[in-house]
Design a protein that fits this description.
The chain is an alpha+beta fold. The chain has five helices and ten strands. A five-stranded mixed β-barrel has the order 1-2-3-8-7. It has a two-stranded antiparallel sheet with strand order 4-10. It has a two-stranded antiparallel sheet with strand order 5-6. A hairpin with a 2-residue loop joins strand 5 (72-74) and strand 6. The N and C termini lie far apart (59 Å).
Amino acid sequence: MLLRRHLILLIVCWSAPTLAFWDPVTSECRPPALEGTATAIDGHTLKSTRVNGLVDIIRLVSIDAPELHQDCRIDGEWWSCGFEARQTLDDLLADADLTCLPCGYESDGAITALCRSGETDIGAEVLRAGMATSYAFFANNLQSAEGQAVTAGRGVWQGDWVHPTQWRQGT
């Protein structure tokens, strides 16, 4: 009986961290990786030029950022949070060698991908700056990065803003 309890405890302790960091969205990301450089189109979309010269439009998986022409408010003053989101992403991409792991395709043909520069998760950094919100409800450090921005009042979290999905719908 004691052995059975230890075995159950071992299984729970071993599997709990695995489940805690499993995200059904990014679990779909598969090689081959796309490698190259990129520039920001908006706060969560980039134009990537691969090492072989091919060009891809990539949307960062599990995040959504203010649309390019979207405005937000801080203390009653309007500011261009959409342009600032793009600038945040562009700054992260400057001089970066990217490795993007494709996760799927959007209806407009954009590749959804988990992109890194070295060990830096680009999507998580946009979230940490407060310039996006996360769709990752389970893990892969995106919720933590967004939580840091919310707590610190960075980016869109320092004032009033409309979620990008609602903004696109005009609500």
